[in-house]
Specification:
about 240 residues, alpha/beta, Rossmann fold, 7 helices, globular
Length: about 240
């Protein structure tokens, strides 16, 4: 993978979803928001290392991360190869899932069918029961991206965040109706490339996974951590 060309009038932001946790790999997966604040599993650590190796020749000037452990661990793998320390951005934290945290979607549909229906139809209004809606997520994330872009003109930086955070932001950025946000996929440790120029962001690459197609995690390590081998793209939300 080759880095994009740098110029004084442009900032490049490499937006990455964190590596997998054991909860991400459950079938069906449970909704993982801010709690529990779980670490990467073996597959997630492998994904983070592969991502770091893919970016090792890129001129990374800074690494920024959500405060949650799975994001910080992913960011640390990348930052280490560039002799950097990840900088925590609190507003990159994952969405507050309220009463639905820790549940599977089938459980949500069974326990809270009416609110679930409203959420699917207008997630920017109703959102997660007792938590945030997508408008609130975008309202706190968009200023962070804008500030980082403006502060890093002529540079390339890495930003590690979360599934809902990135999907909500990209849906807004692309001008998609909020109800279609789940059509945007964010696999664990995918790479998204954002160009910031003249205070305007442009999404250049979405959900790139080429760096995760070469090699497999150590089998013994997987077994000890209770995680399976790498899976193909999964369009479901986790």
């Amino acid at each position: 993978m080759y880095p994009p060309p740098l110029d004084a009038d442009t900032a490049w932001l490499v937006l990455i979803r964190h590596g997998a946790t054991a909860i991400n790999l459950e079938d069906p997966p449970r909704l993982q928001g801010r709690e529990p604040d779980t670490p990467l599993c073996s597959q997630g650590r492998w994904q983070a290392r592969q991502t770091a190796l893919a970016l090792r020749s890129w001129p990374v000037a800074g690494v920024y991360t959500s405060p949650l452990l799975r994001a910080r661990q992913t960011a640390q793998e990348i930052a280490h190869l560039h002799c950097l320390e990840p900088m925590v951005e609190p507003d990159l934290v994952e969405c507050d899932l309220g009463h639905w945290a820790g549940l599977t979607w089938p459980e949500v549909m069974q326990r809270d069918p009416e609110h679930y229906k409203r959420f699917i139809q207008a997630p920017d209004v109703y959102g997660y029961r007792g938590g945030e809606n997508l408008r609130q997520v975008v309202q706190r994330v968009e200023p962070v991206i804008a500030r980082l872009g403006q502060a890093n003109m002529g540079k390339l930086i890495v930003v590690v965040a979360h599934n809902i955070v990135l999907r909500a932001y990209f849906c807004h950025l692309l001008g998609m109706p909020p109800a279609q946000w789940r059509k945007l996929t964010q696999e664990n440790c995918c790479i998204n490339l954002l160009r910031w120029r003249a205070e305007k962001p442009k999404l250049v690459t979405l959900n790139a996974l080429f760096h995760l197609w070469d090699g497999v995690p150590d089998k013994a390590d997987e077994a000890s951590a209770g995680c399976g081998p790498p899976r193909g793209p999964d369009l479901g939300e986790k």
